[in-house]
Amino acid sequence: MTSIQHNLQQVRQRIAAAAASCGRDPQEITLLAVSKTKPASDVAAALAAGQRAFGENYVQEGVDKIAALGDAGQPEWHFIGPLQSNKSRLVAENFAWCHTLDRLRIATRLNDQRPAHLPPLNVLIQVNISDESSKSGIMLEALPELAQAVAALPRLRLRGLMAIPAPEQSYARQLAVGQRMADALASLKKHYPSVDTLSLGMSDDMDAAIAAGSTMVRIGTAIFGARDYGATTHNNN
Ligand SMILES: *Cc1c(COP(=O)(O)O)cnc(C)c1O
């Protein structure tokens, strides 16, 4: 067994245990394998071990990997990094999902740039749930207006919400943040039937995120090992 295959098994077991301990079906929770800075060969190893959804933070690095891997094993690519408008076309043309939508201007560009032969781009609106100093994500108060505008764009499919909460050591605080996100998702669902996804939870807060209702956890290091930014050639977006 390769170490990636072994690590994937362990992460899947952790998800199953977290789901079991709060009475949820583990099938409701998608594992997004975050492959940023890792070579295409690592993604290929994960695909061979049955992993389908992969997350990339840097547009060009992701596009290069998508081209290198092709359709074998049917990977599903998620863009999870900060998105600048000059890179929106590459995301619209290459990815199946974008988790970091936080501006109507970028939503409009993604909508206009999504190729006709592809299904609508699945989008999550990124919410700034706890880290007020962060520049990414919108405040919850602004969500209804942005959601309404995004839902009206035919080449985007509004699937839900994403957050990167500020690090919290305490489970209770992680859970409280997760519940605010889950509440926001529940009210969004009432208006938009396409909404079904809460992208929340990384290695350190996965259990609380799952207890709160996350449907997609984003895990990198525990699958692919520590990242060596110094050795990679990606640029900053
Ligand atoms: C890098 C990254 C992850 C994964 O982080 P790990 O600590 O490697 O598990 C998850 N979500 C986002 C948005 C990331 O940028």
Automatic annotation (TrEMBL):
Entry keyword set: Pyridoxal phosphate
Matches recorded under InterPro entries: Ala_racemase_N, PLP-binding_barrel, PyrdxlP_homeostasis
One GO MF term attached to the UniProt entry: pyridoxal phosphate binding
Residue ranges of every copy of the Alanine racemase N-terminal domain listed in the record: 5-227
SUPFAM superfamilies: PLP-binding barrel (SSF51419)
Classification via PANTHER family: PROLINE SYNTHETASE CO-TRANSCRIBED BACTERIAL HOMOLOG PROTEIN, PYRIDOXAL PHOSPHATE HOMEOSTASIS PROTEIN
Assembly behavior: Monomer.
Name listed for the protein in its UniProt record: Pyridoxal phosphate homeostasis protein
